[in-house]
Amino acid sequence: MTTRRFKQEGLYLAIAATLLMAPLAHAAEAGPAARDAATAQARGLIAGNAGLLRASAADSFEARDVVIDRDGTQHARFARSYQGLRVIGGDVVVTSRRGELKSAQLSLRSAQRPSLSARVIGKDQAAIEAGARFNGRVSKIHGNELVVYARGATPVLAYEVTVQGEETEQHSGFVTYYVNASDGRVLDVQDQLQTAAAIGTGKSFYYGNLSLPTDQKSATKFDLIDTTRGNGKVYDAKGAAISNLFDILGATLGATLFTDADNTWGNNTLSDRATVATDIHYGVGATWDYFKNVHGRLGLYNDNKGINSYAHTNFKTSTGGTTGVNAAYFALTKVMFYGDGDASRGYGPIVGIDVAGHEMSHGVNAATANLAYSGDAGGLNEANSDILGTLVEFYANHPNDPGDYRIGEIMRTGGLAFRDMYNQGADGKSFNCYIGGSGFDPNLAAGGIHDPHYTSGVANRMAYLAIEGAVTPAGTTLTPAQLVCNGDTGIVGIGRDKFGKIWYRALTTKFTSSTTYPQARAATLAAAAELYGAGSPEQTTIARAWSAASVN
């Protein structure tokens, strides 16, 4: 279960063993029979290449996703278990063509496995260690179970402990800890609370009057359901306050679907509760269209199903109050929540297009690479949502909210943004340049200095440079030298279309749950070579952009 949220003011708003690489066409749609056949073939290749996949005799693999290119190349993604225990960081993508293995993408560094009888601490002690790190009132422990934690150099036996309780400035009310079963050390911290057809008129808050697909039930009853995009629905959460799983379930059970008698929704002001619902409906539809028309993806999980969105949600704070300055995607039930902002502090409703694109892209990640929410992978997770959310905003091309590389600027007084992708470090917390060494520490996530909302700045800067080049962003006084970490001011961008295809291909066919920044560099370079050719200008630009963010 993962939920991702924006973060503002403390709130939570491969190793590639490449055997052959040649330019490929884009992915094509494939039916269940073709996907089943690809999965079966990949299982055979796994069995015959245990060494390459760092597999032990007691490993087992569960299929999670299959992508089939138009030229027949197959990318099958598997989760890994060892003697029945999930291997955290053991996932793998097997790429093949005509029955021949082409590459294997994985982050697992060792075929060594821990002894399952080497436990020194028990479940109760693991829960105590996790609770001590929670830094707030604990109300319940969920899912305290043994796993093999393999995001480090050597897999170790650990407990995966999810703590539910009071939200603080450091974390939400739902945090997962990985506790070493031999000595009780916390290895990793991951915040889990991350966010018949008719055409009606939506009088939105940000985007003026919009044509909206709705569902007509009778001559005088319309539901805010997009029947053209998987029947995604918009509900009124009625101000329900959330911070943990039980809150979320209660909010969804108490919400009501937006309905209308004349198929006209809202009045362009906040006096009508349906006004922001139309902004949400529009943003969700724009995101669906981007993934469908640009990447051939039908819905977040590529299952042609829409998601449920909840307007008028509040988010609990550590002081016992609530705030509307937030939005969140909840992967367990595939739903989204949107806050109403806070006019007294200069925040409008948190329902902009790039917010919808950002939060829904957490769903695409959950369905594909499933990047963890700590360490390097956490930064890539958040950056992935910023990158794809920004591409959605450019794709929508609405005159009220032109595409840019600033997150959430339409929702703040004076055009301020939650984040500037090209200079995220301007907030005094985020990283523009990679720190090198062993990378960002998973144990310093969930509100710490290596929180994914801060470490995402590295990939966000790379994306800006790869798309636009070392060019001063509109409306800023930044010099080219201030946009790079290595003095390379000669980078010429490849544009949004090419970069989006490269990034999406790397996410869906190469990234794994524990991909590091250097591995992401290798994966995107491989994707660029597959799409545009080895040594192509596109691949060269991606390499220079990563280097300009200190990822080498």
Q: What do these coordinates show?
A:
Residues 1-27 form the signal peptide. Its cofactor is Zn(2+). The protein has four domains: 15-106, Nuclear Transport Factor 2, Chain: A (Roll); 123-191, Roll (Nuclear Transport Factor 2, Chain: A), CATH 3.10.450; 196-367, Elastase, domain 1, CATH 3.10.170; 386-547, Neutral Protease, domain 2. Helices cover 28% and strands 25% of the residues. It contains eleven helices and 27 strands. A hairpin with a 2-residue loop joins β7 (92-97) and β8 (100-106). The radius of gyration is 23 Å and the shape is globular. The strands form four sheets. Strands 2, 3, 4, 5, 6, 7, 8, 9, 10, 11 and 12 form an eleven-stranded mixed sheet that branches. It has helices at 32-48, 123-134, 245-254, 274-295, 353-367, 375-396, 452-455, 457-468, 496-509, 517-532, 537-547; strands spanning 3-5, 15-16, 27-28, 59-69, 74-82, 85-88, 92-97, 100-106, 138-149, 156-165, 174-180, 186-191, 197-203, 209-218, 221-223, 225-226, 232-236, 241-242, 256-257, 259-260, 264-265, 308-316, 322-323, 327-330, 335-339, 406-407, 419-420. It has 552 residues and is an alpha+beta fold.
